User: Fold CNNM transmembrane domain-containing protein from Pocillopora meandrina.
Amino acid sequence: MGFLCVREGEESLMCNGTLYDRHEEALNYKDGSFWVYLGVYIALVLFAGLMSGLTMGLLSLDILSLKVLQRGGKLQEKKHAAKILPLVEKHHLLLVTLLLANAAAVESMPIFMDRISSPVIAICVSVTAVLFFGEVVPQALCTRYGLAIGATLAPMVKLLMLLLFVIAWPISKLLDCLLGHEHSTFFRRAELRELVDLHRESADANEDPLRDDEVLIIQGALEMRNKTVADRYTPLENVFMLDANCKLDHDTMTQISGKGHSRVPVYEGDKENIVGLLFVKSLIMLDPDEATPIKDVYKAGSFLRSSTTEPLFDLLDKFQTGKSHLCVVFKTQIDEGNNMKSRVVGIITLEDVLELLIQEEIWDEADITCTRNPPDVSKKVSLAKARLSRMKSVDAERSRRPLSPGFKPPEEVPERTQDSYSDTQPLLGDSRAEKS
Assistant:
C-alpha cells in the first residue's frame, strides 16, 4: 500500500488523511539565538511585572490623598504627587493603557519560551515567573512605595499612553460613559471626626500624633456646626443682673466683686428688659460712699441680640466684629392670637462659645469653687463629659498595652488634703496655669 502525501503550506504535510507538522528542536544554550530568546523572555517578564505593579500602585492612590500631599506633604512628597496627579485623574485611560501593555507582554512570553525549552518546562517556568516576578513581587513593592515608584516612572507611563492611545482612548471613553468619571472622594463630617481621633498620641506608627487637646478642638469645631444658641445660653434666672435704679454703694460693690464678672447686665423694671451693660472696670474710679446710681454709669445697648435658633458659628462671627462679648438671647413664640412674640430668656458670652469649641472649661483667677456657685459646675460637668467619653477608648487601649522593659512607674503622689485645695484648680480635666 502506497502513501500519498500532499504539502500543506510551508510547515505541514497531509499523508493519507493525517496532517504532519514540522517539529523544530529547542535551541541549545550553545546557540547564539538561545540567549537572544532568553533575554527577550526575561525582559517581557520584567515589563509585565512592572505594568502589574504600576496598575496596583497608581490606581490605589486616591486623588484626594494626592491633593493633600501636594499641598501639605513633605517637599519630596509634593514633587511626587505633582507628577502622579495628572495621570491618576485620567483613571480609565491609565487603567486601560497599563492592562493592554501587561497583556501584550504576558501573551508574548510563550512565543519565546517555546523556542528554548520543551513544552512542560515552558509551562512550569512561565507560571513561576509570571506569579512571582510578574505579579506578587511587583505589586508588593508598588503598593508599599507606590508614590515614589509612580513618580519615577511617570514619563514612561505617559509614553505608553501616547503609543497605545488609539486603542486605549476609545475603551476608556466607553468606561467613562458606563461607569462615570473618577472623582475624588471627600470625607463626611462624622468620618473626618473619627479620622482625627485615630491620630491621637496613642495611635501606633504615627510619627506626628495629635495631642488630646488638639483632637478635642478639631472635633469641637466639626460638631459645632449643628449647635445653636439654645444649646449653650445661660437661663435668665441664673444670670447675675443689676437694676438700673440701684446705687453703687459698698454692698453692691462687694456683690459685684464677689461674682468676678467683667460686665454685668442692667435691667429696668422687669429682668427681661435688659437696657445695657455695666463694665466692672469702669467702677475703679468710683467712690462707694457716693452711692452713684447705676443708670449714670452703665453703657446702654452695648450688647448683641440673638435668637435661640441661631447657629453658634453665626454668633461667633458676630462676636468677632468686636461690638460686644455678651449677647442677649430671646425666644420667639406664637401666642393664642397666632401672633409672633419674642421674650428674653437668657444670655450667652464669647467665653461660652469658645468653651464649647475647645470642649474644655476656660479658667481664670476669678473662677470660684462649686460650693459657692452650683449652676456653673453643671456647665463644667457637661463640658467635661464630652472629653471624658472620648478618652475612655484611649485609656482602655493604654491599660491593655504591655509595658516596655525600661518602663519605671512614677512616684506616688501624696493624697491631697482639704488645706491644699486650690480655688482655681479645674474640677475635671487637666490643670491649667493661671493667666498672666
Residues 368-375, 401-436 have pLDDT under 50 and may be disordered. The longest strand covers residues 270-279. The two ends are 120 Å apart (CA to CA). Residues 32-59 form the longest helix (28 residues).
